[in-house]
């Protein structure tokens, strides 16, 4: 008798676990064609967002690496009149800050205002390079939830259509496709939007740090040119 109860208990627990298990794949498949299209669009947006984030993250990380002795070396070379060596040092560094300093070194001998203008123009170009495609993340952060809500509206329309055609007898199974579409697309849209929003803000913060670094080194270089010989 005890073995019988234990066997039934195991069967009940297994059945309960199967009932509680909710397959994401099954939710998507049961959501109808409209829900599947919305989910596919959101999946593509997520892939694009992650690609842009990691590509920009490593690019910005590389751009932020500047040798602590870089400006000291530039200072010594400029004061010694070794401008070609200073340019070569900047080229070897290959960072946004180094390219700004190289632009300034190449303008030595001209009025300080012209040097400052050349550095500012070069800085705008470097900032544009750092921010390339980052705005796409902001677009995805705003568009993904709206696309998810579009799926919600489509799902509710399907559910209402089923109710209208049910002849007054509502069957929950009849409404399942529309409800699945409504819920899964909303969740998917919010998840993609949140990920894109977080990654966008993280890149903005990292970019601002590099821009600040560029500005600080540019000011240091201009101060160097103002030092009395």
TrEMBL record:
GO CC terms: plasma membrane
GO aspect biological process, one term: protein import
Keywords linked to the UniProt accession: Cell membrane, Membrane, Protein transport, Transmembrane, Transmembrane helix, Transport
Transmembrane annotation, as ranges: 33-54, 134-160, 180-200
Pfam families the record matches: MotA_ExbB
InterPro entries (alphabetical): ExbB/TolQ_transport, MotA_ExbB_proton_chnl
Recorded topology in the membrane: Multi-pass membrane protein
Subcellular location: Cell membrane; Membrane
Main localization, broad class: membrane
Record domain MotA/TolQ/ExbB proton channel: where: 94-215
Similarity comment: Belongs to the exbB/tolQ family.
Name of the molecule in the record: Biopolymer transporter ExbB
Species in which this protein is naturally found: Tenacibaculum holothuriorum
């Amino acid at each position: 008798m005890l073995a019988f109860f234990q066997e039934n208990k195991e069967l009940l627990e297994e059945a309960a676990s199967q009932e509680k298990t909710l397959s994401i794949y099954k939710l998507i498949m049961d959501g109808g064609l409209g829900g599947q299209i919305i989910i596919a669009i959101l999946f593509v947006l997520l892939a694009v967002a992650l690609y842009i984030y990691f590509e920009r993250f490593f690019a910005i990380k590389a751009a932020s690496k500047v040798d602590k002795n870089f400006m000291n070396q530039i200072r010594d070379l400029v004061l010694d009149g070794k401008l070609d060596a200073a340019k070569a040092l900047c080229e070897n560094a290959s960072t946004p800050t180094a390219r700004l300093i190289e632009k300034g070194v190449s303008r030595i001998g001209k009025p300080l205002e012209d040097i400052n203008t050349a550095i500012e123009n070069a800085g705008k170009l470097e900032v544009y390079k750092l921010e390339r495609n980052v705005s796409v993340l902001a677009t995805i952060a705003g568009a993904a939830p709206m696309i998810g809500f579009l799926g919600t509206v489509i799902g509710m329309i399907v559910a209402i259509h089923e109710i209208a055609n049910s002849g007054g007898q509502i069957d929950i199974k009849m409404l399942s496709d529309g409800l699945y579409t409504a819920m899964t697309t909303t969740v998917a849209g919010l998840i993609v939007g949140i990920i894109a929003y977080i990654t966008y803000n993280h890149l903005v913060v990292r970019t601002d740090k590099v821009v600040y670094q560029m500005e600080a080194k540019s000011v240091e270089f201009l101060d160097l040119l103002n030092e009395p010989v």
